[in-house]
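Action item from last week, closing it out:
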Amino acid sequence: MSDPELLILDEPTNGLDPLVQQPFYGLVAESKAAGRAVFLSSHVLPEVERVCDRVAIIRDGRVAAVERIADLRARAMRHLEIDFCGDVPADAFSSVPGIRDLEILGTIVRCTVVGAMDPILKAANRFEVRLLTSSEPSLEEVFLAYYGGSDDGA
């Protein structure tokens, strides 16, 4: 690879074997360490987090917002599913701060948690938990959650 001052990469690891991705990430890290700018277009959140310091959100062909990865992580969103040993009352989690898209089906509670997990864990502690599953949303879900409803990117 030559030594350009700016690298523009569009979905660079799409279709790459995982064994080939590692050397690629090393080359990108070397470029960053040498002071070169790297623009990366990707829908893969772990890849963006690994490679980028900041994320730009483009809407309707314009930059709607620029966020540092650390700031995006600070407002982290998680999908959470808790399987309890018995039925959970329908209102058991309705007033917990930071919960979105709450769904309670018998022993299963599903929701999205924005920010700290502590409030929902304290609410769940009132019941016997069988299984707790937490997953990271896609980058698209993060963008839509934070920027989807506003024209100014806020």
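Closing note: The chain has a mean pLDDT of 85.
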